[in-house]
Amino acid sequence: MLTLVVNPIAGNGLAQRTHERVRALLESRGIEYRSFVTQAPGDAEALCRDFVREGAEAVAVLGGDGTLNEVVNGLALSDVTCLLVPCGTGNDFAKAMRLPKEPLAALEAQLSAAPGRIDLGRMNDHVFANVSGIGFDVEVLRQTVRFKRLGRGILPYLCGVIAALFRFSPLCARVSFDGGLETDMRLTILSIGNGQYIGGGMKAVPDAVIDDGLLDAIAVDGIDSRLKIATLLPRFISGTHARLPLAHVTRCKALTIHCPGMTVNLDGELIPCDVAKFVLLENALRVRKCAQNA
């Protein structure tokens, strides 16, 4: 049986509208299903923990990256298969999975695919599927919320970027990779990727791969000027910021960031902390790997 988890407000109601189409598709194929509609933040994670305990076979999440984040926190390190029906604003992890953009096409591709596993990341007690970050990225996310009414895709994010330029200042942090020596940095941005994309298609971590057993980290250090940050935005969109002289690119299984009072972006969720300990969870999520994402 397939269990559907639906966030009715995801994608300005797209998930709710897609729910009816998904039900019709499953009924036409003779696939048994049940549906659970979330009512509040945290519901999807709590439901998925229950599904793991009861031995559910598969969960299909109808929502965006935020809903998916809750689901993977409930399903991580279990044998329950996670299917993604992308219905959010950015759908960045669907891009990392190389799924079709259209929600039903994405579901159909996964229904006929072979099972496999992908990696996840964990920051302290929080699991993430896609990209985590501190610095400018966090301020952009705070501002982007104001512009979600502009619709899906990259436009709300770009508006958030412009607004963030007038509010951001770099963070003084101490960073270590794989338990090595600590390095003091004045961070403009530090992105830690299992996946590649944020903000509806911006390549924050361009070389990250979701099943390679490593996290990719890109730190841009020491850029204070708003004008300089603004001139780098096209490179951040295309992923070429990783080649900047001030960019430090590392592939690792763990990293630790000390920065009192910082806020960490985990798949679009903001988590305040003083110390962020990241580790890779290899093969932590069971999925369906269709031909496009094998």
TrEMBL record:
InterPro entries cross-referenced by the UniProt entry: ATP-NAD_kinase_N, Diacylglycerol/lipid_kinase, Diacylglycerol_kinase_cat_dom, Lipid_Phosphate_FormReg, NAD/diacylglycerol_kinase_sf, YegS/DAGK_C
Coiled coil stretches, renumbered: none
Domain DAGKc: 1-126
UniProtKB keywords: ATP-binding, Kinase, Lipid biosynthesis, Lipid metabolism, Nucleotide-binding, Phospholipid biosynthesis, Phospholipid metabolism, Transferase
Protein origin, superkingdom: Bacteria
Short name of any one Pfam family annotated for the protein: YegS_C
Gene3D superfamilies reported in the protein's UniProt record: 2.60.200.40, Probable inorganic polyphosphate/atp-NAD kinase, domain 1
PROSITE patterns according to UniProt: DAGK (PS50146)
MF-aspect GO terms: ATP binding; kinase activity
Co-factor requirement: Mg(2+)
Membrane spanning residue stretches: none
Biological process per Gene Ontology, one example term: phospholipid biosynthetic process
The keyword Disulfide bond is annotated on this UniProt entry: no
SUPFAM superfamilies linked: NAD kinase/diacylglycerol kinase-like
PANTHER family: SPHINGOSINE KINASE, SPHINGOSINE KINASE RELATED PROTEIN
Family, per entry: Belongs to the diacylglycerol/lipid kinase family.
Protein name: Diacylglycerol kinase family lipid kinase
